[in-house]
Amino acid sequence: MFAALIPQPLLSRSTHESQDSKPAPDTKPQAKSNAKSDEVYTAGGEVKAPKIIHYVEPDFSPSSQEAYVEGVVRLSAIVNTEGLPTELKIINGLNSEEDQTAMEALKQWRFKPGTKNGQAVRVKITVEINFHLL
User: Fold this and answer.
1) CA R_g for the chain
2) Fewer Cβ in 10 A, N or C end of the chain?
3) pTM score, whole prediction
4) How far apart are CA 71 and CA 133, in angstroms?
5) Alpha-carbon distances of 58 from 8, 24, 95, 99, rounded to whole Å
6) What is the pLDDT of residues 13-37, one digit of tens each?
7) Per-residue pLDDT tens for 90-111?
8) Using one digit for the tens of pLDDT, what is the confidence trace for 63-86?
């Protein structure tokens, strides 16, 4: 393979929150009866981050191999309560071909869902996929 992944630092608490300055949902006090199933949390405190259980390495595009392109693609996603990555977005790209292959690979990843108080919840993650020629 021509793409290398570093599993440990892939997931991190997102530092790219929404434009408004509202606190993250996990910091708001909530009554259990008002909990929304579509609410998105960030890991920390009582919210546990999703854990990778299966990942797919992206392939280098032939043109990037020939040009010796290397670098990192940063993506954000929301891991749903079934452990599937949804709402994928490029935060920092490398080039259109590698951005696309990184996104296609991330769509195939599977996670143990994040939890809050032992219940599976939707959690926003940031993923870094490193492209390095071996």
Assistant:
1) 16
2) C
3) 0.71
4) 10
5) 17, 31, 14, 10
6) 222 233 333 334 443 433 343 445 6
7) 999 999 999 999 999 999 999 9
8) 887 778 889 999 999 999 999 999
Enumerate domains of the chain plus CATH numbers.
3-11+38-131 (3.30.2420.10)
Query: Is 130 strand, coil or helix?
Result: strand
The CA-atom distances, in angstroms, between 124 and each of 39, 59, 68 are 10, 25, 32
Left, alpha or beta for 116 (phi > 0: left; psi -120 to 50: alpha)?
beta
Provide the 8-state DSSP code for 63.
H
3-state SS record for 73-128:
EEEEEEECCCCCEEEEEEEECCCHHHHHHHHHHHHCCEEECEEECCEEEEEEEEEE
Q: Read off the tokens for 94.
A: 């490398």
Q: What are the backbone dihedrals phi and psi of residue 16, each rounded to the nearest 5 degrees, phi first?
A: -110, 75
Could you tell me if 98 and 69 are in contact, meaning their C-beta atoms sit under 8 angstroms apart?
yes
Are 128 and 74 contacting, i.e. CB atoms less than 8 angstroms apart?
Answer: yes
